[in-house]
């Protein structure tokens, strides 16, 4: 049998422990204690309890997150192992409207006091967790950053070398056309040649647009070639670009969370003190 009595304004649930076959009292705080916390206290008291659940009278299971204050408003069933107990909480005297208003004010005041007393500890604990997460992410990023720096240097060197090769080819082409125009042939012969060279260059630029859907702009073409060399080198060096980007995103998110946590409105500190802490 499970009985419920009120002592000093708090409900006391008395039940028989299955292993020791003795009565045990559990004093709960209805506005704070949840059903899951109550069941955990029961299992902690008797290690032989393998299953403890609470069901409503219609057979539906009561969530562990439900407050005991809500549970004690109606009858319910307490199932311990394979034994089910029907529980009927005593009916509390209804408060007058004035007393009910006073109780709501007291609850609100207690809630504000709880927040005021524990907010700073929560912020300190959260800040410590974020700092530990930042250190962990930076440790994971350090070898990837070093590998990325080497790949970036190699890709940048190849891109610069390709640009210089292009300049050398254009200079060679200009010199060859000048030599053929003034020393070998005349401008009448070389003019059609230069026309077709110009037309071929225009076709090459148009082909670039068809393949890349971008105009042939020198900075964009350089960046595209750099990315080509970078990703090709990443595959040979087994550099995981997706994992690196994921870690960078997590790092930025953690830094943003830490910055927001350290805002003066959250810490209730002046801006100057925040600057000193940073």
Level of helix content?
Answer: 55-70%
Strand content: 5-15%
CA-based shape: rod-shaped
Sheet of most strands: 3 strands, antiparallel
Radius of gyration: 38 Å
Counting H and I runs of at least 4 residues, what is the number of helices?
8
Q: How do the helices and strands follow one another from N- to C-terminus?
A: EEEHEHEEHHHHHH
Tell me the domain tally: 2
Q: Tell me the quaternary state.
A: single chain
Average pLDDT works out at 80
Cα separation of the termini: 60 Å
Q: Give a count of the beta strands, DSSP E runs of length 2 or more.
A: 6
Biggest sheet, strands in spatial order?
1-2-3
Low-confidence stretches: 265-278
Indicate the structural class.
alpha+beta
What does this structure look like?
It is a multi-pass membrane protein. The chain has about 280 residues and is of the alpha+beta class. It folds into 2 domains: about 5-85, Roll (Ubiquitin-like (UB roll)), CATH 3.10.20; about 120-275, no CATH class. Helix content is about 65%, strand content about 10%. A hairpin with a 2-residue loop joins strand 5 (about 75-80) and strand 6. Helix 3 (about 95-185) runs antiparallel to helix 4 and helix 3 crosses helix 5. The radius of gyration is 38 Å and the shape is rod-shaped.
Q: How would you summarize the topology of this molecule?
A:
Blueprint: E1 3-7, E2 10-17, E3 22-27, H1 35-45, E4 52-56, H2 68-71, E5 76-80, E6 83-87, H3 97-184, H4 187-212, H5 218-237, H6 241-261, H7 264-267, H8 271-277
Antiparallel strand pairs: 1-2, 2-3, 4-5, 5-6
